[in-house]
Amino acid sequence: MKPIFAFLSAGVVALVLLVPGQLSLANDQPSSATYAVYAKIILPLKPPRDGSHPIVESWISKNLQKRGKSKLRAVTQWVRLAEKGEKTTQVWKATIDGKGWGCPVYGTIVERTKDGQVKVELSGWSPGGAEIKGQTLAAEIGSRRIAVVDTGEGDDSGIAYIALFVGPALPDMTSTRK
After folding, report:
1. Residues forming a β-bridge with 120
2. Each residue of 86-107: pLDDT tens digit?
């Protein structure tokens, strides 16, 4: 019995040494190093004919079609939002086909709550700013949501949509540090 116990104990120690940071307790808060929040801007516009534009993923398309939006155009790729201590990420320069559409849009993670939520802020859009609805989502890899840039009419008829996705923190998709 002692040799089996010694073998199992050595295996557990080796596993812990080989995979530090991947083992966690259920009550541990996720580290910002293990996941990131990504955003993609979608406009209710017809896509260009040349096909040289970012794709609108099927989950985004299905969600917005349920809201009555059939013409959808992604104007950005997935962009990682800045963490605390990082310079705010420019998500979109606010140009479509080389023409100005509004004000540039910047994004950042503003809060990670104790109940496992993450809240983002996307500012810009117009000189007066805009109200964003739905910018909080679960802080788990795979969580996704569509936020609405509200027109002020209160009927979910957004002038733009922001697809939000929680994914692994990839080193090649980092924001600029301060």
Report:
1. 109
2. 899 999 999 988 899 889 999 9
13-22, 93-102, 124-133: least confident range? 13-22
Question: Token digits for 41?
Answer: 């801007």
Q: What is the rounded distance in angstroms from the CA atom of residue 144 to the CA atom of residue 163?
A: 7
> Considering the entire predicted model, what is its pTM?
0.74
Q: Which long-range contacts (CB under 8 A, 24 or more apart) does 103-111 make?
A: 103/127, 105/41, 107/39, 107/79, 107/81, 107/82, 108/81, 108/82, 108/83, 109/32, 109/37, 109/81, 109/82, 109/83, 109/84
The CA distance from 59 to 159, in Å, is 19
